[in-house]
Structures are given as structure tokens and as C-alpha cells.
Amino acid sequence: MSSIRYQKRGNKFYVYSVTQYWDKELKKNRQTTKYLGNAETEGGAYKKTGRRPAALKPEKAILDFGDSFAINEVAKNIGLDQVIKDSFEESSDSIMNLSCYQIVEGSSMQTCDDWVEGNIANKLFPEAKTTSQDISRLIEKLGKGELQQKFFRNYVAKFFPNKTGLLIDSTSLPSAINSTINAFGYTSDGIKENVTCLMLVDKDSKLPIYFRAVGGDISDNSTLQTTIKEIKQLGLNTGSAILDAGYCSKENLLYMCEENIDFVTRLPRSHNIFYKLIDDTKLEESHENASKYGDRVVFIKSKEMKIYGQKMFAHVILDPSKKAKDMNIILRDSFDAKHTEKQLTELNKKIKYSGFLILLSRSKIERQDVLPTYYTRQAIEQIFGFAKSNNNLLPLRVHSEQSINGYLMLVFISLILFITMRQKLQPGITMDKALIRLRGLKAKIYDNEILVQEPNKKVKDLARNLNIIMPTSLGV
Q: The Transposase IS4-like domain covers which part of the protein (predicted)?
């Protein structure tokens, strides 16, 4: 079945006859085009005026263009593409292809080969190997220690040459592989077999810096010192660190003081000094001690003191709303029970110290900056959220410790691009929405040229925000 197509170029409309047919070998619809002539207006009369331009041979395919092209251009603009080439050499096309696939689709790797047939990625990364077997071999390769060290050295040198502030946290990744790194440990869903992914994020740029995969049965507080030593070997100069309570131990506090790292962390209630600090600080609920954080009003009193023999600042915080909520829960469940004297003492202790939070820092922090400083660590929680929802991080389905590290490396690279792009978008535009709009920009593939179709206003706006230029054509 044939139809007439008018295509505007300059001030004229070029007219083609388009015929659809079924390709028995490829088992899919194809089309051929025949040049008929040109017209002055769309839908108007046409006439043939000479030889058909060589660039307008019958089109071979129509591919999704905007999404992978934008990702690749962002990688070039920030210099990540060169870091990948310098680190992984002949595998760079495969890595970029898979990164585009993870960001755009976030689906199982086994469908990548089908996806790439309909995406411009197969032209942007011609050396990419995308069969399931090839991807498995690549993931295994990316897990090699010497390759990862080479990448992180190149990456740190390019992106973090100066003293860096760290956000440090970890997340559990459920896994069923038969490996020593997979072990029973605490997760958000209880005790399960899992691998722990520890991530370091730059406080200013919010880009991931480094990751480690550690056994699910290894506690957070025992991983910090090794991690700091490793990144020092890779050339990262750590100036400061913001850590969750899981990393707050006497040994880690003393280590960070020794390394002159300007830290902020939350003191867990399991430390005996928690209650002593509250008693010694004598925080009063007064206007002088009040501070506003978002919609919350809290009371804060900071005090310089020696903790474990080192000078630190303790920031004792009382959240009245949380105290009221906690006290309601404690007392509501206690009225119908009979308590021993020991139980009553413990109950009164819970009531007395409910609603309190203590932050420790190496340097002085002004009252109004205490909570905002600590809660910058929410950026790393968002990164884990992106990884799990957009990059198919859960659950891990690889089959060896080396493959775990290789797969996390692939996710890590995708995260760099994902976060960079997300930070450039206008408020209200999510990455999902941006990728759908970009995917709407198509390209027609000819023997010797790729013709990019006209972008709409939404795509133009995205290109401007991402600081990229959408071309009208590319060479094949």
C-alpha cells in the first residue's frame, strides 16, 4: 500500500511515494520511498525537476534518537566519555551503550539486544556488544580490581582534583548468589541474605565518587577506615565527611580526628555518653535556643567539649513534635501493664530523653546551620533511590563476587550521567518525563546519512537545559 509524503526542505516540499511491505526474512514491516518531484506548497501539485539527491536514497530504518544522543552528548560535555575510554579502552562502546540502556529502560540486561535495534545507540556505539553472553563477559571484566582502580584514579583526577567533602552511607542489596560476600544481615525488610553497597558522594556536586561491595554481615562502623584508606590510595583528598549514625563509633571518631577530617555525624543512643551529654548541656526550651528547619521548630544548644579525649562540638537537639509523638506511643502502651521498679525506671528514662537528637562535629556550626548541614546527607539516600528505581539495582542477579562489583560499576557510571542530567532539568521536569520527550525525536537512516527529524519545542527546551545541540543530520 502506497502513500504520498511531503517533506519540507528550505522553501520547497519534496514529494515521495512511500510503500509499506512485510519483510519475510526480518519478519517486520519495512518501507521503500520513491522520489516523485517537488511542490511549492504542502499537498500541492508536484513535478520532477532533475536527478534525485544522493542523500535521499530509500530510508532503511526509523530509530529513537533523542534519548541516547542526549546521554552521549552529556558524557562528552563533562569528560566522562574520555575517562571511560582511557580506563576500559575497547569496551567503552559497550559500556556507554549499556549505560544508555539502563538510564532509558532500566530493564533486564537480556532485552538490551532488542532495544538497541530500534535506538540510535547502535549507530553511536558501533563497537558495542549487546548479546546476553557478551554482557555477562563485560560485567565480569568490569569487576576486576585493577580495572576498577584504573577507572577511579582517572575519574577522581578529572572530577575531584581538590579537597573533597564526602557524604557516606550504605544500602543493602538482596541477593541469592553463592558467595562469601552474600551473607545474612539487617535490611529494611528484616534479616535477609544481602550484599551491602557502600557509596561515597561529593557534598557539593552530589555526584557519586566511589563505591564498595561488602558482606551483608559486616557492620557499617567497621568499613569506614578501610574505605577512607582506599580512596586516599586513589588520589582523593578528603576534607570533610557527613556520616549516618551507623558509622559513629569511638574508633571511627578518633580515626577521623587523627586524619584531620572535618566530620558531622549523629550519635546513636547506644553510646553511654548520649544521655550524659543531654544532662550536661541542660538544653532549655527558650526562644534563644529555637531554630527553624523547614516546617519544623526545634531547640538546639551546642557545646565544645572533650569526647573520647578529643575536642569536638556536641549539638543537642530537642524536637518538640517528635517528643510529643514518642511520649504518646510510650505512655499509650504502658497504662494497662504492670511494671516492676526496674521497668518503671527504664520507662521514665525513655520519657525523659524522647525527642532528643545529638550531632557531633569537629568544627563549630552555627545554630541555624546544624540541621541543614547534617541533612545534606539526604542526597545520598536519593541516589540509592535513583539506583534502585531507575537503574534496576534490585535485586542482584549476578553469580559471583567479581560480577557483583562489575555490575555495580556499570550502575555507578549510569548514576553519574543520570544525576548530571537530572540536575540540569527545569523544576517540575522529572528524568522519566525528559527521557520520554527526548525519545519522541526520531532519526531516519539512509545509506550514507542519518537525517534527524524536526524537534518540537519541548525537545528544544530540554536540549538547551542540557547544554547540547540537536543536529539535523549525522554521517553513517
A: 163-417
